[in-house]
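Q: Hi! First time doing this. I have a protein sequence and I read that you can turn it into a structure. Is that right? Here it is:
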Amino acid sequence: PASGWFCRRPSFEMGRKESPKMQKKAVYLERLGSLLEEYSKIFCVLADNVGSNQMQKTRLSLRGDAIVLMGKNTMIRKVMKAHAAEKNPDLEKFLPYVKGNVGFIFTNRDLKDIRDRILANKVGAPAKAGSIAPCDVFVPAGGTGMDPSQTSFFQALNIATKINKGQVEIVNPVHLVKKGEKVGSSEATLLTKLNINPFSYGLVVLSVYDNGSVFTPEVLDITEDDLLKKFQSGLATVTAFSLGASFPTAVAVPHVIMNGYKNVLAVALATAYSFPRADKLKDLLSDPAKMAALAAAAASSAAPAAAAAAPAKEERKEEKKEEPEEEEDFGLDLFG
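A: Yes, that's right. Below is the predicted 3D structure, encoded as structure tokens:
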């Protein structure tokens, strides 16, 4: 149950009874407050061009794992501000996103899984005149099924056509509408005649709230491998900078020690100075038989890896196309 910072006034105040509308409002506020207390992860979603039937399918797909809540932004801001003031100050970071035709999806499950299920519920829709295109619209080349009397319709849109087998055929693919532009009445009519539904609408995730952090949905696509690659790249950069500037750091110390050991070993091999590990190397270099045995051992250990790689190379060779035959030799060499 939610706390009482938005509880409704007693119905007997001023001798008036609350109207059904006020009662519904109080129930909504109480429900939103309880959801904010129960769930620590929230999606802010844009619901433009989403019908009631599509919304119901989305609710069914998330049932048991998430709750979809729509409502007036003023009421949502009121509850969030009160909840942020008394219980969760981090919720204020989410308030700037409460604008426009938005809704909220509350969950405690894996965010990436819920996001994918939200985006999976999309419905194809025709292009309506005056609407903003959410993506580029292309009309493919080929037959249209329209009779030759409608060629003037295509000419008005500067679309090259020809008559083939008693129907209008589009010669080349046409970029009819660009993303972000308004769909004209002629473009909308053409797409309808061609039975093309270029757009697909569904809930769009605008931002994500997770235990006090607010971020864009693209963050959910970052994998552990991506983080590891970034971390390794950063370590390599710091190491290179440290070695180049002769500034010791934790990541550069192993390289400094190794380089120093190589220098000492080189001095020992070139002079009479020696130490136990240098003696082993000198003994190895002075005996060709030991060097040959060491080389053979290295070759035998590398043989299994080479044998495993050989089939892959053969497959790649088979995939390559046969080279063209060489031109005939007319008896002339490079020097005439």
